[in-house]
Each structure stands twice: as structure tokens, then as C-alpha cells.
Amino acid sequence: MCCHHSDNQRQTRGTKQSDAAEAKRLEEEEARRKADEEREQHEEERRQEDAKLAEARERAEKMKKMAEEQMDILRIERELQAKKQAYSDAQKAARIVDDAGDDEGSDSVPEDHSVHYSFIYSLYSILITLHSSIRGPQSRRRHIRRESLVKG
């Protein structure tokens, strides 16, 4: 009976050892499972944060693009306004604008044109004087000599 009892003790010890090993294995497996779950949870949180960041970045890019387009629109509007003003000024300068106050339909020159003509004449005189002063008295002498050669 002695051997039988020691076999039982050995079996019990073996069973206890295997039970302890099994318990340890289960604990390690549970710890691994928890670590995997935590890692997956962190990865999911990171993915959600990345998605939020990407969405915010996309909104910021859209807003930047809209602001740039708005600035382009304002620039184009200013250019158009400047062109309209230049065209209007050119029409006024050339007197293309219809004169609604002309009752007789004559081709007479309106009064304000005389001011323009006198201004143009004054400007022309100044330009001629400047041209003469730049070229100097020699050009005048040459011009006189040519006249005398033609007459002579």
C-alpha cells in the first residue's frame, strides 16, 4: 500500500503542478488578451483622431481655397472697375458720348472743346520749345540755310 499511496501523492503533486501550470498559462493568456484589447483600443482611438485631423485639415484647405477665390474675385472686380473707368474716361476725352443737348443736330463744337483745343495748342507750343532747346541753335541755322538754298 505504500507504493500505491506514493503513486497517489505523485499523481496529486503532478496534478497540482499541472493545475498550477495551467493556471499560470491561463493568466498569461488573459494578460495577453487584455494587452491586445488595449492595443486595439488605442489603435482605434488613434484612427479616430487621425480621421478628425484629416477632416479638420480638409476643412482648412477648403476655407483657404475659398478665401483665395474670394480674393481673386475682388481683384478681378477691381480690374473690371478700373477698365470701365478707363473706358469712360477715354470716351469723354474723345467726345464719343452722345450730346443729348444738341437741339439743331449741327456739327458745331461744344464750348468745352475750345478749352481742350487751347490746352492742346499750349501743350504743342511747349513741346516745340522744348524740342528747340534740346536740339540747340544749330538746327535753326540749318533750317534757315536750307530755306536760303531753296530760294537762292
Q: What would your notes on this structure say?
A:
The protein has three helices and no strands. The longest helix is centred in the N-terminal third of the chain and has 93 residues, at 2-94. It is an all-alpha fold. The chain is rod-shaped, with a radius of gyration of 52 Å. It has a domain at 113-152.
Q: What's the rounded overall pLDDT mean?
A: 76
Rg value: 52 Å
Main sheet properties: none
Strand/helix succession: HHH
Number of strands: 0
Between the first and last Cα atoms, what is the distance in angstroms? Answer: 168 Å
Tally of individual helices: 3
Strand content: under 5%
Shape: rod-shaped
**Percent of residues in helical segments?**
over 70%
Q: Low-confidence segments, ≥5 residues, pLDDT <50?
A: none
